[in-house]
Design brief:
single chain, alpha/beta, chondroitin 4-sulfotransferase activity, Sulfotransferase, 5-stranded mixed sheet, 5 strands, carbohydrate metabolism, 329 residues, transferase, binds 2-acetamido-2-deoxy-beta-D-glucopyranose
Length: 329
């Protein structure tokens, strides 16, 4: 009788211990769950989200709220189903070259027979609407059999370098050429004036009740994370980063070439793309470079301008892992 009593006691203790252990320490549950990839990515995303939220809280406390990330604002896709590729273009981020690349890959033979150039001005480009879509769902549908496996490519560049290029081109060069358009909110090349107005517009666009229509300036200056449906698809993208220094552009180009090579694009086509891209580089180098240098100097010398830039682009730096030394200075 005593023997049975002792055995029962031991069993009960064992059972309650293990139950207690299971319910209080759920670390084993976590381990199991992370083995499914979607959960794993979800966790990474939650970490990133927590990090972004924390940065936003800090910024708010100092009275300088950041523009929120991942607003679904602008999308431009061009596809090359033959190579299972879709390219998302971000304005002022080699977008002309990238639409040229998508066009060559879409129908290489026709492109070559017509003696077209990869760097044709956007409005005259050869493929036009033939391979271009505005929503990822449509891109998926057009990819046919590859709708689960196609590669999403995007080229991004340092947000400040992109802003300088945008501002010197659209707010100085074009604004002077077409004064009637009052482009860039009629700021006459004043960077601070532009950023104050643009910041307010981005705040409005990121509210759920936004009534304003996206302007030409909004689309060119929008944070990187507002493009390409990154809120949903960031982890699926092959991200090609351009170096800040145009002299290092060749590296960015080499990355692009590698990604295309992985997609079985033939050598001759790769060489054609590379040659055109480098020619375009020298073409651009001389074009509005004076304004470019002036804007760059202004940003370097004016902390207030850097603060505005930080409010708009800081989370881009974090999300896409760019060097924050300058923007924090
Ligand atoms: C192709 O275009 C280039 C310049 O754009 C021109 O020099 C060349 O003669 C053209 N070739 C043909 C075959 O049309
Ligand atoms: C594109 O994807 C389809 C379906 O997944 C596959 O059969 C085909 O081989 C792929 N083509 C290339 C060039 O990778
Ligand atoms: C530029 O704009 C800012 C803000 O609108 C203004 O305070 C400043 O005086 C302007 N600078 C010049 C040189 O006009
Ligand atoms: C393409 O170039 C690579 C090296 O750059 C070479 O190994 C490969 O054989 C070439 N392919 C063809 C089809 O010429």
């Amino acid at each position: 009788m005593l023997k049975w009593f002792i055995i029962s006691c031991c069993l009960l203790t064992a059972i309650s211990y293990s139950t207690y252990y299971l319910f209080t320490s759920n670390s084993w549950i976590k381990t199991v769950k992370t083995h499914t990839y979607s959960r794993f990515y979800q966790l990474i995303k939650e970490n990133t989200k927590t990090q972004l939220d924390r940065l936003q809280e800090e910024a708010k406390l100092s009275g300088k709220s950041l523009i929120p990330p991942f607003i679904n604002f602008d999308r431009e896709y061009a596809i090359a189903p033959k190579y299972n590729i879709s390219i998302c273009r971000i304005k002022k981020s080699m977008s002309t070259l990238m639409s040229g690349v998508a066009c060559v890959l879409y129908d290489t033979g026709k492109f070559m027979r017509n003696n077209r150039s990869i760097l044709e001005v956007w409005s005259h480009r050869f493929c036009g609407e033939k391979n271009e879509y505005r929503r990822m769902n449509e891109v998926k549908w057009r990819m046919g059999d590859a709708h689960h496996t196609f590669k999403k490519i995007v080229v991004i560049r340092d947000p400040i370098a992109r802003f300088i290029s945008f501002f010197s081109n659209k707010c100085i060069f074009e604004a002077q050429k077409y004064p009637d358009r009052k482009q860039c909110y009629n700021c006459q090349g004043n960077v601070t004036c532009f950023l104050e107005k643009q910041y307010e517009r981005f705040v409005q666009h990121s509210s759920d009740y936004s009534r304003i229509r996206p302007s030409y300036e909004d689309k060119h200056a929008a944070p990187l994370s507002w493009n390409c449906e990154f809120g949903k698809f960031l982890k699926d993208y092959k991200i090609i980063k351009l170096a800040v220094d145009p002299k290092d552009r060749k590296n960015g180009l080499a990355n692009l070439m590698n990604v295309l090579k992985e997609s079985n694009v033939p050598n001759s086509t790769l060489r054609f793309i590379e040659k055109s891209a480098l020619e375009g580089e020298t073409m651009h180098a001389t074009y509005d470079s004076d304004a470019h240098d002036v804007v760059k100097k202004e940003i370097e010398n004016d902390k207030k301008i850097r603060e505005w830039l930080k409010r708009i682009y800081y989370l881009d730096f974090v999300i896409f892992d760019f060097d924050t030394t300058f923007i924090n200075s």
